[in-house]
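Table S2 (text version). Query chain:
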Amino acid sequence: MKRIVNKKLLLVISLITVFFILSSDFFKSKSLDALYPIQKGISLAHDVWSYIHHFFYDRNFTYRKIKNLEEENQKLKAEILKYKNQISEIEKTYPILDFVKKYQIQNYEIAKVIGISSDNWSDFFFIDKGRKDGIKIGDLVLKDGFLIGVVKNVGDFSSEVLTVSDENFKITVRTRKTQEISFFQGLEKNKGILKYVRPEQDIRIGDIVETTVINSQAVEGVPIGIIRKISPKEGEFFREVEVETFYYPYNLDIVLVVKR
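Corresponding structure-token output:
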């Protein structure tokens, strides 16, 4: 019995001793020192993981943000280009409208060239206006105040224009200075000829060849070309007159169609 009491007393004393040791500042200090490496390791591991997570998250976020900005930038560039083209086309119509006002043209259509001929046998181009716009075969086509062709074929939404340089293009004309009536026919690129010019007619080099009201479908006084060469041939009834046309195939964009 005495032995049991001693054991209990010893246990109580041991517990009290342990309690005081655990409660002492010394033990707390040493405990902190013992736990420091573990806590430091856990903290470091957490920082490393947080850095890795934010690195990849921020990288993906930044990449997506840059990608979105690049897409927005491309859209803005496309919009700017679209508006620039629209402004450019509007600016190109100003001279046409001035010409319309000057010649008092009532029935007309402004068209855009959408294709040109690719062969050497004929000279023509296509415009984006057709039957639905009131375009008809025989309508005259002008560019920068010059006659450059006549509508040859008409579809619902587009038309084919035969140029003044094509040998199938023919029209009655006059010379601007001397008012001599003649007959113009296309010859080749940028060239035409005056046919049936009699020797007594006052035809001069440098004179402008233009449309005349003799053609019911033509606006009077629209330039076609300029006389560059006159070659009288002895023994022949007519003189050979070469005309340089004002039609240039590499400068086609917006044209004026004068409706009949």
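Notes on Table S2: Helices lie at 2-23, 25-103. The chain has a mean pLDDT of 80.
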